[in-house]
Each structure stands twice: as C-alpha cells, then as structure tokens.
Amino acid sequence: MGHQERRVELIAKRAAPHLEPGEQIQTGFVAQSGSSILTARVWTFVVTDRAILIVRKGTAQRLPRDFPFGEPSGMYHTFQIDRAYKVHRQYYAEIRAADAALRGTRADGDPPDGEPR
C-alpha cells in the first residue's frame, strides 16, 4: 500500500464513528493550529457530501458544508473557521478537491444543509 492509500485509509478510519448513515467522504486532510511547536495541535478535517468534520482525539465537531478553504499556496495554507488552521502543502490537492466538490454541489442547485429541497 502506497503513502496516498495509507493517508486515505487513516482519514476514513478517523471519520467512520462520526458519519451519518449514507454520508460519503469526499476528501480529507490534516491541519494544525497553534503558534509554536509547544502549542500546536493536530486536527483531521474530513469533508463529506453533508458536512465538514473536524476530528481530534475521538471527538468531532460537525460544521456546515458551505465553507470554501481557498486556493492554497506557499509552504502552508492558512484558513479560519473556529480558529486559524495551517495545512502543509502535501495536502493541497485535497483542499482543491474539497473546494471543487463544493462548487459542484452549488452548481447542481443543492440547497444548503437544513433547507428543504
């Protein structure tokens, strides 16, 4: 099994207990928060067809699926949801995939979560 397959498997394993029935993972990546090596925390972001899950130590925060992460550049891409997160460039393909999937959902005319179809 290659490096990419192991990353996908790890993200799916971390997400599994927090998925709703029928919910599909679109992509995932690892991010960190904190300003120094002493305060850094690592988070797994799992982007599904319904939500963004921020997973850490067996717990998950579920956020609406309407957040674009933005075009990454440089060594680390920074974005702000509930705090500032930094993503290493090795996950830039996953960030782009998450935003592409969101654009696809919006283009299909799917309403935001919680709104009737």
Unreliable segments (pLDDT under 50, ≥5 consecutive)? 111-117
- The top level CATH class name: Mainly Beta
- The counted number of beta strands is 6
Q: Please tell me how large the radius of gyration is.
A: 14 Å
| SS strand fraction | 25-35%
CATH topology (fold) name? PH-domain like
The number of distinct helices, counting runs of at least 4 residues, comes to 2
Distance between the termini: 41 Å
Q: What spatial form do the alpha-carbon principal axes imply?
A: globular
Number of domains: 1
Secondary-structure element pattern, one letter each: HEEEEEEH
CATH architecture: Roll
Task: Characterize the structure shown.
The chain has a single domain (3-102), classed as PH-domain like (Roll). 25% of the residues lie in helices and 33% in strands. A hairpin with a 2-residue loop joins β2 (41-48) and β3 (51-56). It has 117 residues and is α+β, with helices and mostly antiparallel strands. The strands form two sheets. The protein has a four-stranded antiparallel β-sheet with strand order 1-2-3-4. The model is unreliable at 111-117 (pLDDT under 50). The protein has helices at 3-15, 92-107, and strands at residues 25-33, 41-48, 51-56, 59-64, 76-80, 84-88.
